[in-house]
Write a sequence for this structure.
């Protein structure tokens, strides 16, 4: 009997969590009898099985080995709470954050959606990314403290740089809480790309998959950056007076309660995640992706799910306004002018440049893009172009090109 058990353990598959096609879920917990040890819970057809090794489809799974320092830094639940409605859990988290942080409802609601999405991230279409503007005077540390009690496997890091990424324990599937990370363009691109599955970071030290949920706190606004479109946005406000700090006992009580409640939510609802049924057609394409991702994290309650829409409507307007000022957007606007009012089947690039300059001038800007820069914008937009006559290059306003310009304009312009 001892030999058989030894063989089973030697062939066990280390895991940080599994979600199978039949709806079975395996998740990590801390052993309540020994908080330094990890154990597993398997949920199959609503039946829970908690023990160091669990089996499924003829295979045995054991907890992944985690470095002791990492294990201490990442919070894990110790039990599974009883079933409850999505609305009850959402309201409880919203009330908790509102009572401790003194922030506007829009920011609190964004954080609540981010917490839900962190737990459901293994089954969401994209990894959730929340970017929070944290000006001086805002309760940044307290917000980070609260989120580290609520999110799935939170790992709080300060000043993350490009070279630090390969050292992260991504095999543990953490939610990264990033306080003032490096936000130079290269790092922004990496963070933005990490919302998509299969994103890998390559360096001389190796390859790491960087996909996973993240919440970024920065004193710099994300408008006009690579993070603008793929991140839900929130903003802290300065607080008059002093918010009461959380002591260790209060921290542990909050974490013990909500980690267990969210683990129960994940185990019972991961197989029920669906793309939201609410209308997303009013949003630009990047914001639709955010609506699908954060909306899908709310299972079984359409009314709660729709609470993401006002946040995204404001964000969509800001994105469209920013885009409307870019050269690409104004080139598309000029293209629409020539389609509807130009009266010509072909238009030269230099004429488009003149119209772009006129649009900028009408908006109080002295920008005067050259025909060459407009030509590059046309190429970036992948609008078919080339030599149209002896006078120079341009675009032919045939049916397919006109349709393409209209489609692109819907994403870039008002």
């Amino acid at each position: 009997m001892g030999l058989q058990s030894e063989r089973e353990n030697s062939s066990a598959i280390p895991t940080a969590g599994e979600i199978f096609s039949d709806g079975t879920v395996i998740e990590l917990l801390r052993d309540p009898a020994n908080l330094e040890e990890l154990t597993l819970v398997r949920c199959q057809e609503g039946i829970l099985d908690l023990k160091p090794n669990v089996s499924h489809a003829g295979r045995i799974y054991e907890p992944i080995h985690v470095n002791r320092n990492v294990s201490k830094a990442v919070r894990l639940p110790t039990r599974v709470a009883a079933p409850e409605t999505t609305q009850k859990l959402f309201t409880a988290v919203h009330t908790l954050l509102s009572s401790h942080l003194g922030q506007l409802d829009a920011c609190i609601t964004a954080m609540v959606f981010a917490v839900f999405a962190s737990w459901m991230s293994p089954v969401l279409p994209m990894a959730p990314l929340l970017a929070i503007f944290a000006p001086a005077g805002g309760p940044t540390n307290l917000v980070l403290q609260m989120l580290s009690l609520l999110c799935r496997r939170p790992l709080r890091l300060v000043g993350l740089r490009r070279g630090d990424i390969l050292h992260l324990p991504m095999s543990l599937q953490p939610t990264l809480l990033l306080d003032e990370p490096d936000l130079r363009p290269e790092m922004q691109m990496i963070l933005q790309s990490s919302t998509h599955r299969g994103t890998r970071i390559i360096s001389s030290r190796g390859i790491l998959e960087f996909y996973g949920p993240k919440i970024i706190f920065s004193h710099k606004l994300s408008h006009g950056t690579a993070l603008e479109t793929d991140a839900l946005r929130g903003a802290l406000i300065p607080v008059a007076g002093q918010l009461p700090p959380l002591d260790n006992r209060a921290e542990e009580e909050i974490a013990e309660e909500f980690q267990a409640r969210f683990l129960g939510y994940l185990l019972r609802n991961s197989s029920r995640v669906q793309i939201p049924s609410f209308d997303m057609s009013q949003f630009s394409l990047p914001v639709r992706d955010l609506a699908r991702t954060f909306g899908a994290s709310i299972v079984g309650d359409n009314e709660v799910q729709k609470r993401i829409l006002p946040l995204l409507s404001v964000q969509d307007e800001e994105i469209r306004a920013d885009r409307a000022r870019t050269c690409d957007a104004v080139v598309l606007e000029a293209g629409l002018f020539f389609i509807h009012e130009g009266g010509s089947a072909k238009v030269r690039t230099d004429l488009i440049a003149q119209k772009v300059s006129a649009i900028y001038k009408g908006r109080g800007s002295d920008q005067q893009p050259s025909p060459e820069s407009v030509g590059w914008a046309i190429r970036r937009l992948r609008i078919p172009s080339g030599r149209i006559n002896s006078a120079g290059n341009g675009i032919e306003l045939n049916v397919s090109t006109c349709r393409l310009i209209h489609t692109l304009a819907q994403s870039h312009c008002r």
